[in-house]
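In this section we walk through a basic example: taking a raw amino acid sequence and producing a predicted 3D structure, encoded as discrete structure tokens. The instruction is simple. Fold the sequence below.
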Amino acid sequence: MLERSRLVFFFAWLLSCGLVIFPAHALQVFDDRGTALMLAQPPQRIVSLLPSLTESVCALDQCLRLVGVDENSNYPAQVRQLPVVGNGLEPSIEAIVALKPDLVMLASSSRATLRLQSLGIKVLALEPKTHADLRRVLHTLGVVLGLPDDHAARLWQRMDSSLNTVAKSLSAPARQARVYVEVGRGPYAASESSFIGETLARLGARNSVPGALGPFPQLNPEFVVRADPDVIIIGGSSAQGLVLYPGWASMRAVREQRVCVLTPEQADVLVRAGPRLAEAASLIARCLNEKMQAMGISR
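The resulting token sequence is shown next.
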């Protein structure tokens, strides 16, 4: 006890003499693993291994801090000039190390985390899966980047306001539409519990895939036939072209051409839980308004 008291006294003396100095920008945040990240100062050389995080950094006006990205990070255009370190789940560790990053941002599911940490590289695992997640991630990035307290909050407010504006653009028939959104061949669908499902709900449309199946369940094509949605939106890997599953030709949405096939670029906007949330909502709204224009509220 006496020894501890002496240590406390000695530390207090060092403080009083100005001999102990804490970094002016030292910060601590917790990532999606619940792991604390300690940084002496905001990172200036960042490698991003998740497209939604890449877009979020740029939406916060900090694109210049990015020195490398994963192979799927393609927006905004300026990130296409950056070195590519491979797939976000299993990137090239050597390529990352060569870039000398002071922070690597990646998904919680990335297999690179432990290897990077063993090399002394700071890692921040963030993977937004809902609207609330996205708001939280933007706030965390704002803190990590050393931005003013309200910077990320103002970005979210603009996104949320734009989302409300898009919702008001929906016609009455579109608000009643039952929608099926495919995000990958399988088929894999966006259910009510996915962030795409949340966007549909904000717009006032109805999702034909229940959330109880999980955010992005793989369905039997017959399930979609029985659900008989009013509008089908094809995104993800399915955006390369509409190839009908068995039985789909009998669905009214297909027979009456109420199917929206998104381009690969549009599909990226739709499937990423990032700052282009309102743009994704606009894609959905335009599709629903167009396809439901000639169809009265029959359900």
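Looking at the output, two observations stand out. Residues 10-22 have pLDDT under 50 and may be disordered. The first helix runs from residue 2 to 16. In the next section we compare this with other chains.
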